[in-house]
């Protein structure tokens, strides 16, 4: 009987922590869509989202020693991305579009672009910062209020009310744009 | 609404070449010589170098203060010594006159 030695390859996180650059590349490839999309749905700007995501992965590279499991890695990335999005808007205050003005954007959008998805993304971008993040984490990452509260550092009830308000506002604006 | 939002906010891939750019910036970070400044030869991490520099600064400031205090004390002793000598001279002079 031949004994076959099965050598299990450590997961990319372990290898990256040990200094394997290719393994770090695997981690980036595995999580870049998540990080980029949170930033993209927050800023509605691909270039800016890519810059933010790149900085976050560089930060991860420096902080790899502090990440102890793949679950921790995902949580860390979500948390750092959401904080970074808020910090960015505070650092360079974006030209905020009041939600009341979005009807015009949405109406113009209806003429140009009949796609509901694009319209919804634009409406989400016009939400206040925290509502925008909560909606993104809820619908992009499909997280529940408890997990969202851990990421954004708010109480669960506050997350629920932010989500409720955001959905009401989105529904109202969507109806107005159709009406 | 839920399904529409899920579809609208689904994950998207970053622009082409993103992973390579990230890895290049990490490689650049890794290849930057760690040692900069006078504590570099000690081979400490950046954080520890900052702590060591702060400690040296505190010790330096504290040491400087101690030197200043010692110098002031010496000046005071010299002044007292001179004053004592003058007082002694004055007393001897008075004693000479009174004899």
The second-level CATH architecture of the largest domain in chain A is Orthogonal Bundle
Q: How many structurally independent domains of chain A?
A: 2
Q: Most extensive chain contact?
A: A-B, 37 and 24 residues
Percent strand of chain A equals under 5%
What structural category do the secondary elements of chain B indicate?
mainly alpha
Sheet bearing the most strands of chain B, described? none
Poorly predicted runs of chain A are: 95-114
What is the CATH class of the largest domain in chain A? Answer: Mainly Alpha
CATH superfamily of the largest domain in chain A: RNA polymerase sigma factor, region 2, helix turn helix motif
What gross morphology of chain B would you assign? Answer: rod-shaped
Rg estimate of chain B, integer Å? 36 Å
- Give the averaged pLDDT of chain B, no decimals: 76
Strand residue percentage of chain B:
under 5%
Terminal residue distance of chain A: 76 Å
Which percent bin holds the helix content of chain B?
A: over 70%
Explain what the structure shows.
The complex is a heterodimer of chains A (179) and B (99). Chain A is built from 9 helices and no strands. With 179 residues, chain A is mainly α. Chain A folds into 2 domains: 12-91, Rna Polymerase Sigma Factor, Chain: A (Orthogonal Bundle); 99-178, Winged helix-like DNA-binding domain superfamily/Winged helix DNA-binding domain (Arc Repressor Mutant, subunit A, Orthogonal Bundle), CATH 1.10.10.10. Chain B has one domain. Helices cover 75% and strands 0% of the residues of chain B. The longest helix of chain B is centred in the C-terminal third of the chain and has 53 residues, at 46-98. The chains are: A mainly alpha (179), B mainly alpha (99).
